[in-house]
Design goal:
alpha+beta; 5-stranded mixed sheet; 30% helix; 9-stranded mixed sheet; 17 helices; globular; 568 residues
Length: 568
């Protein structure tokens, strides 16, 4: 089924699997925080609150493309200390950036080139802002520094859970809410929504949140709690890092037992076929279970399809799993993949992309069998979380196409057809811009009624904010190694195709978008027109107005956000 010729490649001088994995582990590690020299701190941060732990720290985003060394960082013990830090920053001309797990791609936290001399202070949320408690039988109160794995474990222990969640468990809740993180789920045929759950983003579960905001009457920053039915809350539900939220209350519901079946026997031509083609299509799986994900490695024909279904009792063929991360072959880079990646990076052997794609598929096919992971069943957390920080680090672009549920297969077919045609055309010219995969997920939208609160506000800047004529979002990501030649030009073509072909296209905030021929997050037309228009002028203006009013001094911002979040 696949080309295994990669097994014959010799070791690459200067690069070993061990060295590769060490590099991956270094990227995965929490940045080392070095205690500040009191004399230096007093000179560079005069008057900084003495009771707040202060450090020197590096910053690395998920793929190491955005880095900064020697930044000042602090670890406030509670929300009161966060307020003290923001107040100090405002009075001294500094900016603060909340730092969680740094599991993101876009420059929403730190911009590339930020240096030790800049007045940027990282606020570590993971050390202390990690409280968890039941606020009621159907709500949980959580600090924004808690990880999704810790949150889901806490919920599971109380018989609660989420319909869907992002695959990485190391994401902090605050970071996930800032960019409307999502999983993959729509109602299956005949499925009734469960109270306390949503098919939209995690932001749609917020009942209230506490943030540091400017109080005009007091002429000072204050801690303020916003209820979901307050107008200003709508801008804070997905704030992109333009606010500092310390605590949230989320609506939750009864936990579910989920079965996840993986298969690699359906050709892409059949799974992504045109509507009405028959056969085993993505739409057919959606109708049956409502929860699917397709991972299609570059230059291969057989995607890795995951299908989750609600199953109160263990199916006879399923393996019961009691912990998450059940695909170790994916979380730990195999030798063949590490060697290929090393050769491509060190020798500029980007033409090996088809070999790498087939090697990754081979690893998945064999790994699913060897680890008995092709059919697993357990509490929702244990099948939803499957990505560890030790996985292969690749760049990713991301878009949500809002459409009618009946048109999901058409959207997927047209996108994958265009992707396949362009990838083949590039390869024919000796260019290999993609060496990772296409990932496809499908979710519902952020329907305010899911919050169970009268007058609940819809997140203004959520990519799945409801749109007239749409009830479903198709999430499309393309993954490729950092530094891959021609990637930006190729992804620019895909981006233009999506915006021009599908009126309901929005960017996925945490990933890559606004491509030029040689850069990302740089296309002025996308930033200045396409993105605001995708939400509607009134919605965009309202969001920017609230965020500016709640932080008029732009203490919680950076240069990139200053350029993106402006009135158009």
């Amino acid at each position: 089924m696949t080309d295994r010729s990669s097994d014959n490649f010799p070791a690459v001088d200067g690069w070993s699997r061990r060295g590769f994995l060490r590099s991956a582990a270094a990227l995965a590690a929490v940045p080392v925080l070095l205690a500040a020299d009191p004399a230096v701190a007093a000179a560079e941060l005069p008057g900084f609150p003495a009771n707040v732990a202060l450090y020197r720290s590096a910053y690395r985003n998920w793929v190491g493309e955005i880095t900064a060394d020697g930044l000042w960082a602090c670890a406030p013990a509670d929300a009161g200390q966060v307020l003290t830090v923001v107040d100090w920053a405002w009075r001294n001309g500094w900016r603060v950036r909340a730092r969680g797990s740094s599991h993101g791609w876009s420059p929403l936290t730190i911009t590339e080139g930020a240096a030790a001399g800049e007045q940027v202070l990282l606020v570590d949320t993971t050390s202390h802002l990690t409280g968890l408690s039941l606020d009621s039988g159907s709500a949980v109160r959580a600090g924004t520094g808690v990880t999704l794995e810790a949150l889901l474990t806490f919920l599971e222990d109380h018989g609660l859970g989420l319909t869907a969640a992002p695959a990485p468990g190391d994401l902090t809740l605050g970071g996930a809410l800032a960019i409307d993180a999502h999983g993959t789920a729509v109602p299956a045929d005949g499925e009734e929504p469960v109270p306390g759950h949503t098919y939209g983003s995690l932001s749609n579960l917020v009942l209230s949140l506490t943030a540091v905001v400017w109080d005009e009457s007091a002429a000072a920053y204050v801690l303020r709690t916003f209820r979901r039915d307050e107008a200003d809350c709508a801008a804070l539900l997905t704030h992109l890092g333009r606010a500092l939220v310390t605590e949230v209350v989320l609506r939750v519901g009864a936990n579910s037992m989920l079965r996840c079946v993986s298969r690699t026997d359906i050709p892409a031509g059949e799974l992504f076929a045109a509507p009405g083609s028959g056969g085993r299509t993505l739409d057919g799986f959606l109708r049956r279970s409502g929860r699917v994900e397709a991972i299609w490695f570059a230059f291969t024909e057989y995607p890795w399809l995951k299908e989750w279904s609600v199953a109160p009792d263990r199916p006879l063929t399923s393996r019961h799993v009691t912990a998450p991360y059940n695909y170790p072959f994916s979380d730990n880079v195999p030798t063949v993949v590490a060697d290929l990646v090393g050769r491509m990076a060190s020798d500029a052997a980007w033409y090996l992309a088809p070999v790498l794609g087939n090697a990754q598929l081979d690893v998945a096919v064999l790994g699913l069998t060897a680890t008995l992971s092709s059919d697993i069943w357990g509490a929702s957390k244990n099948t939803l979380l499957y990505i560890r920080p030790t996985t292969l680090r690749v760049g990713a672009n991301g878009y949500a196409v809002l459409t009618r549920r009946a048109d999901v297969q058409r959207v997927v077919h047209e996108f994958t057809s265009f992707y396949r045609e362009r990838l083949a055309a590039y390869a024919a010219a000796g260019r290999f811009p993609v060496n990772g995969s296409v990932e496809i997920r499908v979710t519902g939208l952020d329907e305010a009624s899911d919050a169970g609160v009268a007058g609940a506000q819809v997140p203004l800047l959520s990519a799945v904010r409801p749109r007239e004529g749409a009830d479903t979002a198709v999430w499309l990501d393309v993954l490729t190694l950092p530094g891959t030649p021609h990637a930006e030009a190729f992804l620019r073509e895909l981006e233009r195709f999506l915006f021009e072909r599908f009126e309901g296209t929005r960017v996925e905030w945490s990933k890559g978008w606004a491509y030029t021929e040689s850069d990302v997050w740089s296309d002025e037309e996308v930033i200045g027109a396409r993105i605001p228009e995708s939400f509607g002028g009134a919605v965009w203006e309202a969001a920017v107005e609230v965020l500016d009013r709640l932080d008029p001094h732009r203490v919680v911002s950076n240069g990139f956000l200053d350029a993106v979040l402006v009135r158009r």
